[in-house]
Amino acid sequence: MSAAMATFDEARAYFLCGVCETAQLATFQTRVTARPAMNVLDIGMPFEVTDDPETRGYLKLREHQAGTPIRILEAWNCGACGSAQWAWLVVEDHRLSDVERRDLTRETLADTHYGTIQLYYLLPVGSGGELDELPLNDKIDRLLQAAAQEAQ
Questions:
Q1: Given strand 59-60, what is the order of strands in its sheet?
Q2: Residues 6+ apart with CB under 8 A from 77
Q3: Residue 89 in contact with residue 72, Cβ under 8 Å?
Q4: What CA–CA distance (Å, rounded) separates 71 from 89?
Q5: Side by side, which strands form the sheet with 40-41?
Q6: Cα separation of 137 and 129, whole Å?
Q7: Which contacts qualify for 95-98: CB closer than 8 Å, 24 or more apart?
Q8: pLDDT tens per residue, range 2-48
Q9: Of 100, 97, 105, 35, the residue nearest 68 (C-alpha)
Q10: How far apart are the first and last CA of the chain?
Q11: What are the residue boundaries of the structural domains of the chain, listed by start?
């Protein structure tokens, strides 16, 4: 795929897996840039942020206030054990200011502005559209219930 046709970039950061505790350089797709070109985004790297993350495929969990950091929840898989993991991309002043491994908890979801569309995969087929209409606490409850069922 040429950069002109790219639909995503990649972010990367060093993490410990939350399951096997293997240290690794995690790389995962992100659609937060205004003009994706298959670039690799490292902490501190400047880029133009998309004006509307929802049109780039993100689920809006809560409103973002202009002038504050944007927290986007992305998914990644451990290279050692293959377990599904979550990470926050923190964007501030048109820079990737931080990337941190996160557990899928009430606190994480409550502090996330936008989440990867992969959050929909936790839900029963066809029920993702309902999620868009729910208040934040109900969205969080639905996602946490689905994640708990998937873990069983």
A1: 59-60, 114-115, 70-77, 84-92, 95-102
A2: 83, 84, 85
A3: yes
A4: 6
A5: 23-30, 9-16, 40-41
A6: 16
A7: 95/44, 95/45, 95/46, 95/47, 96/11, 96/41, 96/42, 96/43, 96/44, 96/45, 96/47, 97/43, 97/44, 97/69, 98/43
A8: 445 568 999 999 999 999 999 999 988 999 999 998 999 999 999 99
A9: 97
A10: 38
A11: 3-151
Tell me the pTM.
Answer: 0.83
> Rounded CA gap, 7 and 33, in Å?
10
- Other Cβ atoms closer than 10 A to 61: 23
> What confidence tens digit (pLDDT) does each residue in 61-112 have?
888 998 999 999 999 999 999 988 899 999 999 999 999 999 988 899 989 9
Contact call for residues 88 and 71 (beta carbons, < 8 A)? yes
